[in-house]
Amino acid sequence: MDMELRHLRCLVAIVDTGSFTDAAIDLGISQAAVSRTLIALEDILGVRLLHRTSRNVTPTADGARVLARARHLLAEADDLVAEAATGHTRLRIGHAWSAMGRHTAEFQRRWATLHPDVELQLVRANSPTGGLAEGTCDLAVVRAAFDERRFASAVVGHERRVCTVAADDPWARRRSIGLDEVRERTLLIDRRTGTTTADLWPVGQRPSVEYTRDIDDWLALIATGRNVGVTPESTATQYRREGIAFRPLRDAAPVAVRLIWRRQDPHPATHAAVALLRDLYRRHQ
């Protein structure tokens, strides 16, 4: 039996709804048909995809990998149908935190002028690849390490680092903070999508560290005054909020900003996006 899109839609529906019963309702088929379709997919792939208990359904390790690829393939299939019907192309650019920073609005305006037939969508995803590995976007803006075997990339610019502190912190009254001074404080690092690691400091001279896994939690904890953070200046542009202050960080190397895409499946507008974003960063150096 060949794998069909209905097999993949069934898997996604089961995981997203959390049960075979709800998946059947979502797909408009019987529960028995859902079970048969999943079993057929497992037979085709030769792996078990789901852990099933009386209370919940969760992906196996193999299932998680297949699920990510299934989402991508289904999104591509939906795009194909939409483009065939309308003749309109869409470019989705993912990001974990701050998109293109201060260049975001200008990128959107210039893209609409230069490429009116390619709809631009910015997609925020709490993922190290900005949603690219999960199939929710075509390109992604990243400022941290990624799998270079799987994804191709282009450096589009560089951003200075800033120190993030509570608005009532004594450091908030200063014009800048030295990298060495951060060692005196407890550094908050976003383990999932952040750009900063303890490797920014020499071994034996590193600050104490605590971790979070989301930009909103990161900012909320820093606002309490317990921690400080280090982040690219784009974060300061996109996340201005009460209770937080950003100050330039001295003596720290800048952060490279990259656009990344799937090596085997680049979007036709990839190089146009790279060229435009490079131009914006170059103009504002």
Approximate strand percentage: 15-25%
* Main sheet: strands, sense, barrel: 5 strands, mixed
Helix content estimate: 25-40%
By CATH, the topology of the largest domain is: D-Maltodextrin-Binding Protein, domain 2
CATH homologous superfamily title of the largest domain: Periplasmic binding protein-like II
β-strand number: 13
Task: Describe it.
- The protein is of the alpha/beta class and 285 residues long.
- It has helices spanning 5-17, 20-27, 31-45, 61-86, 104-114, 215-223, 233-238, 270-283; strands at 50-52, 57-59, 89-95, 118-124, 139-142, 151-159, 161-166, 177-178, 186-190, 208-212, 229-232, 244-250, 255-262.
- It folds into three domains: 5-79, Arc Repressor Mutant, subunit A (Orthogonal Bundle), CATH 1.10.10; 88-158 and 256-283, D-Maltodextrin-Binding Protein, domain 2; 161-253, Periplasmic binding protein-like II (D-Maltodextrin-Binding Protein, domain 2, 3-Layer(aba) Sandwich).
- The model has no long low-confidence stretch (mean pLDDT 92).
Summary of the model, kept short:
With 285 residues, the chain is an alpha/beta fold.
List the helices and strands and how they pair.
Elements (H helix, E strand, L loop, with lengths): L4 H13 L2 H8 L3 H15 L4 E3 L4 E3 L1 H26 L2 E7 L8 H11 L3 E7 L14 E4 L8 E9 L1 E6 L10 E2 L7 E5 L17 E5 L2 H9 L5 E4 H6 L5 E7 L4 E8 L7 H14 L2
Parallel strand pairs: 3-4, 3-5, 8-12, 9-10
Antiparallel strand pairs: 1-2, 5-13, 6-13, 7-11, 7-12
